């Protein structure tokens, strides 16, 4: 650790490259907390957006018109408005209504800013996932679904055991694109002061005046995070590959 | 009214079925006794598939009635699962679950639908695959099996639900001539064990050999029916004769 810090001190003193996160443990702590927050934000939003996508696509195939119309509105709302505005809407409009009285007798927000970021991002990406799953579902042959009905599977069982597993395989490329976009969109949480990497980096560069250095670190961090996601998606795709099946 | 085996296991009475304005079944009636093998033949588009799909409620009907073991099929209060447990169906295009191995295809419905014990289900599934002569193919995916092998997996999958009646809709029509035989042998075995079979088929030799009764449908009606010997050698209706002269 000492030689590690010495290297960054030397980089600064001899070359003028001021990477405080290399030699200053306080800045490093802030930065790593930011990385961790971005990871948590990404993982939670990915999970919830997948659940929203799978459930939404199921509801969209419901025989009840009202449910289908509801999902249609949901998708239109989240697709046709800017995600930053959605985030503000949840945090400033919904968040100020959803309050509970805390122990000190003052109103407390029911959901933290991190919580709102997860909710908002999950809904945003989830709306797109509904459509992505939907297109995968349309690729499942009607005859396969009939075979499962003839075996006694009900609608939900057919969806869970046959339709969804096949749809995911078809939808995986578009799903991957959307999830990578979701990770990049987590930077919006900056706007409601969630201390993710962009927020942490901005704090560091305003204290240390090393914008150029931190910008590079920030971009490289995202490249690293997205690379991890792409690798995971690739593993998933491989695990789902069916021998002798042409998808 | 409880059903007893001396009554028809499947009873179809004056069934009418339309798709929009298109009348496909115009009053079809037939009774099938337990253990019987009946074959439905007829020109393309005459409503054969539609008819057998009505038997397990994959299609609804607009008039008439169908009962399976005394239970009305087209009844709003029908317990669909009870019906599907009694009636198995095999399709022309096999329709296996492509993401599951042969063994998993056979095990899935007893596990997920009937919630039976896994060890028992697996043992039975292996026995069924053996019965359809697919020992050694348990862990192959449908995409790795020939058409005839896939169709036999589909038969085993259907049998895993322990049905009382099996419906076969042109199950050899998509197969190479060489593999047709292996599927027909499987069906023959089943019939020999006393399974009630309702087959739509173009295999006239097979129908003649195996069927207890043949029904000839054209344009939504049963034109003529009878035991194979009478039907094939002594057809009365000119439409039947014309059809037979084309296919025999
Ligand atoms: N889901 C459907 N919607 C509309 N029309 C249908 C539908 N299914 C079948 N039909 C029509 O009903 C008629 C009978 O079809 P069916 O599949 O029962 O014929 P078939 O006797 O099985 O013919 P084939 O020997 O070609 O399989 C055809 O004219 C067909 O176009
Ligand atoms: Mg047909």
Produce the secondary structure layout:
The complex is a heterodimer of chains A (247) and B (248).
Chain A lengths: L1 H14 L4 H4 L1 H36 L4 H15 L3 H15 L1 E3 L5 E3 L3 H26 L3 H9 L4 H31 L11 H12 L2 H30 L7
Antiparallel strand pairs in A: 1-2
Helix pairs in contact in A: 3-6, 3-8, 3-9, 4-6, 5-6, 6-8, 7-8, 8-10, 9-10
Chain B lengths: L9 E10 L2 E11 L4 E5 L6 H8 L7 E6 L2 E2 L7 H7 E4 L11 H12 L4 H14 L15 H13 L5 E5 L7 H16 L3 E5 L3 H7 L2 E6 L2 E6 L1 H6 L4 H10 L1
Parallel strand pairs in B: 3-8, 3-9, 6-7, 7-8
Antiparallel strand pairs in B: 1-2, 1-4, 4-5, 9-10
Bound molecules: adenosine-5'-triphosphate and magnesium ion (MG).
The site of magnesium ion has 4 residues of chain B, from helix 1.
Task: Give a structural overview.
The complex is a heterodimer of chains A (247) and B (248). Chain A is mainly α. Chain A has a domain at 40-209: MetI-like (MetI-like fold), CATH 1.10.3720.10. Helix content of chain A is 78%, strand content 2%. Chain A has helices at 2-15, 20-23, 25-60, 65-79, 83-97, 113-138, 142-150, 155-185, 197-208, 211-240; strands at 99-101, 107-109. Chain A has a two-stranded antiparallel sheet. In chain A, helix 6 (113-138) crosses helix 8 (155-185). The radius of gyration of chain A is 23 Å and the shape is globular. Chain A starts with a helix and ends in a 7-residue tail after the last helix. With 248 residues, chain B is of the alpha/beta class. Chain B has one domain: Rossmann fold (3-Layer(aba) Sandwich). Chain B has a 6-stranded mixed β-sheet with strand order 6-7-8-3-9-10, sandwiched between helices. A 4-stranded antiparallel β-sheet of chain B has the order 2-1-4-5, covered by helices on one side. In chain B, strand 7, helix 6 and strand 8 form a beta-alpha-beta unit. In chain B, helix 3 packs across helix 4 (118-131), helix 3 (102-113) packs parallel to helix 5 and helix 4 crosses helix 5. Chain B is globular. Chain B starts with 9 loop residues before the first strand and ends with a helix. The chains are: A mainly alpha (247), B alpha/beta (248). At the A-B interface, helix 7 and helix 8 of A face helix 2, strand 6, helix 3 and helix 5 of B. Bound molecules: adenosine-5'-triphosphate and magnesium ion. Magnesium ion (MG) binds at residues 48-49, 169-170 of chain B.
């Amino acid at each position: 650790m000492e030689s590690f810090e010495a290297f960054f001190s030397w980089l600064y003193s001899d070359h003028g490259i001021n990477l405080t996160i290399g030699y200053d443990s306080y800045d490093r702590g802030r930065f790593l907390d930011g990385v961790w927050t971005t990871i948590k934000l990404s993982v939670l939003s990915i999970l919830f957006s997948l659940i929203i996508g799978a459930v939404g696509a199921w509801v969209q195939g419901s025989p009840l018109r009202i449910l289908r119309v509801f999902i249609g509105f949901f998708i239109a709302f989240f697709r046709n408005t800017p995600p930053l505005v959605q985030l503000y809407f949840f945090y400033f409009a919904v968040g100020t209504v959803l309050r509970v009285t805390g122990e000190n007798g003052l109103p407390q927000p029911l959901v933290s800013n991190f919580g709102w970021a997860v909710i908002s991002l999950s809904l945003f990406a989830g709306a797109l996932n509904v459509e992505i799953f939907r297109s995968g579902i349309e690729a499942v042959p009607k005859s396969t679904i009939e075979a499962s009905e003839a075996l006694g599977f009900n609608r939900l069982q057919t969806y869970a055991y046959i339709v969804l597993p096949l749809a995911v395989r078809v939808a995986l490329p578009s799903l991957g694109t959307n999830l990578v976009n979701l990770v990049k969109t987590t930077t919006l949480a900056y706007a409601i002061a969630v201390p993710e990497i962009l927020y942490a980096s901005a704090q560091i560069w305003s204290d240390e005046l090393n914008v150029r250095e931190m910008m590079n670190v920030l971009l490289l961090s995202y490249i690293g995070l997205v690379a991890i996601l792409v690798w995971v998606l690739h593993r998933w795709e491989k695990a789902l590959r069916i021998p002798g099946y042409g998808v | 009214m409880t059903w007893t085996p001396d009554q028809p296991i499947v009873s179809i009475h004056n069934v009418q079925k339309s798709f929009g304005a298109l009348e496909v079944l115009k009053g079809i009636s037939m009774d099938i006794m337990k253990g019987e093998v009946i074959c439905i033949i007829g020109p393309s588009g005459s409503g054969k598939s539609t008819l057998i799909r009505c038997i397990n409620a994959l299609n609804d009907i607009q008039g008439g009635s169908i009962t399976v073991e005394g239970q009305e099929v087209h009844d709003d209060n029908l317990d669909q699962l009870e019906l599907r447990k009694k009636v198995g169906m095999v399709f022309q295009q096999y329709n296996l679950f492509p993401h599951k191995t042969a063994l998993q295809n056979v095990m899935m419905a007893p596990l997920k639908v009937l919630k039976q014990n896994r060890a028992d289900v697996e043992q039975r599934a292996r026995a069924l695959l053996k019965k359809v002569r697919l020992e050694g193919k348990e862990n192959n995916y449908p995409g790795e099996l020939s058409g005839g092998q896939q169709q036999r997996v589909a038969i085993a999958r259907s049998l895993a639900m322990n049905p009382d009646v099996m419906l076969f809709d042109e199950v050899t029509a998509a197969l190479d001539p060489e593999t047709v035989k292996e599927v027909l042998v499987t069906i023959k075995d089943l019939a020999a064990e006393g399974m009630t079979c309702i087959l739509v088929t173009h295999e006239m030799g097979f129908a003649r050999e195996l069927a207890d009764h043949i029904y000839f449908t054209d344009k939504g009606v049963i034109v003529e029916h009878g035991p194979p010997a009478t039907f094939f050698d002594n057809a009365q209706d000119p439409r039947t004769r014309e059809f037979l002269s084309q296919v025999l």
